Known about the structure:
Rossmann fold; 7-stranded parallel beta sheet; 10 helices; 7 strands; 49% helix; binds NADP nicotinamide-adenine-dinucleotide phosphate
Amino acid sequence: MTKCWFDYKTIIVTGASSGIGKLLAEKLIRDHGCNVIGIARTESKLVSFKESLGQFSHKFSYFAFDVSDKDKWTSLAAELEEKGIRVDILVNNAGILPKFDRFENYTLEEIDKAMQINFYSAVYSMNALMPHILKSDCASIINVASSAALCSLAGTSVYSASKAALKSFTDAVREETRGRCYIGLICPGFTKTDIFRSQKESSSKSQKAMDMVSTDCDRMVRLIINSMWKKKADSVFGIDAHLMDMGNKLLGTVCSDVASRVMKLSGLEMFRDIFYDKKN
Ligand SMILES: NC(=O)c1ccc[n+]([C@@H]2O[C@H](COP(=O)([O-])OP(=O)(O)OC[C@H]3O[C@@H](n4cnc5c(N)ncnc54)[C@H](OP(=O)(O)O)[C@@H]3O)[C@@H](O)[C@H]2O)c1
């Protein structure tokens, strides 16, 4: 193991029961000797992840709660203080991808849920834990947004808004805490995880198309760790994410237009409700 600034540190990772968060937690434990406190709603998944760590399982502890419940963050901060557990790093990774759809088809409850989980959860966790984390000599917070924060596409109004809010919030707090805390922002593109479970049934054609543009989860996590290692302010990962980032910078709304037309032309079932009226 090459020496790295976060070796053996204590790190909270939200969304540690699956996908990017789970693999990130595993690599931080196995490759960097970190103590990881994982957070997610489904306790059974956290338990089986802990068991899967074998001889490293003592390095993983967890709290099963909904990250959009602000009281849980307050209680967690109090519990950490009471037990004298010092947390050095917070990774706000938990998130959901609402079904691709037109804005007019979302209920206000669905919109509120996405904003709560994808954006407010980071506000709540940072509000409760920043005073605690700032006491560490390597205080750090890494927020996982999305390429959707960089360029908005048809069907992603709510998701893009939640991730763009997280990006703006992160960028501002970075400047306020410069020299006291490392604040990183990660904008992944499509990554092979289960996050697409709420999308319309994927045909093998959809699956193939998604696989073509998606980054392998293991590769994505290695890129995230490398970004943390170098203390990068912001990182965009994945070919699709780079195209969206560059396209938006160069072409602005034309990029959103072209990409949305490509989604329509693809004929994929999961994009159907965006472009065609729902059948009754
Ligand atoms: N995969 C992609 O293509 C992609 C692309 C760009 C950005 N991202 C972002 O990367 C992050 C991780 O996504 P992923 O692909 O790894 O998704 P995933 O496989 O669906 O994992 C999401 C994790 O978040 C947890 N979670 C969701 N809602 C939660 C809540 N309310 N409270 C607590 N935990 C919650 C889930 O556990 P429980 O369900 O048990 O709570 C799970 O552990 C997300 O923020 C996502 O927006 C993903």
